[in-house]
UniProtKB/TrEMBL annotation:
Protein name stated in the entry: Carboxypeptidase-like regulatory domain-containing protein
Organism field: Carboxylicivirga linearis
Xref: InterPro entries: CarboxyPept-like_regulatory
Superkingdom field: Bacteria
Length: 160
């Protein structure tokens, strides 16, 4: 009888924990601060959770255990963000996907990193123009290098 009571209590507790979600909302723009429509928002396993509307805005329910999101759109670099605790408003600037012909991966990474480092400044500008509702992002974003020789090295991290 005790075992049955313990098992039923554990099942009820696990159902309650697995059913908890939080509401995430925000908008997505490009480096020119133009809204990007229909961006796919996926979990780290690339399962689509939500999609931004025509104005680049979104609102969806996210399980509490989900910490990383992957954003994708044609012509834009895939963006991986790691949510901080209490982060419910996500304003994201996606980087344009550029083709770097006739230069090394090291040179391409150098140019991409220069653009990546400007993202916090662009975020602040978007806030000042009334595009974003947050002054600083409440997530971490990692610069992912193209250069295969450096992939084993620790990636650069920023709160872009």
């Amino acid at each position: 009888m005790r075992i049955l009571l313990i098992i039923s209590t554990l099942v009820i507790i696990s159902l309650d924990i697995n059913g908890q979600t939080r509401t995430i909302h925000g908008q997505i723009v490009d480096e020119d601060l133009q809204y990007i429509p229909m961006v796919s928002i996926c979990n780290i396993d690339t399962v689509e959770i939500a999609k931004a509307n025509i104005d680049g805005q979104f609102k969806f329910e996210l399980p509490l255990g989900t910490k990383k999101l992957l954003l994708s759109f044609v012509g834009m670099e895939w963006t991986t963000i790691e949510l901080k605790d209490g982060c419910d408003t996500i304003d994201v600037i996606m980087m344009n996907e550029w083709i770097y012909d006739f230069i090394s991966l090291k040179s391409a990474d150098r140019k991409r990193l220069k653009r990546f480092k400007k993202l916090p400044e662009l975020h602040k500008l978007a806030y000042e123009k009334g595009i974003f509702t947050t002054l600083t992002p409440c997530y971490d974003r990692v610069f992912e290098e193209y250069n295969s020789k450096k992939r084993n090295r620790k990636n650069r991290k920023t709160s872009s």
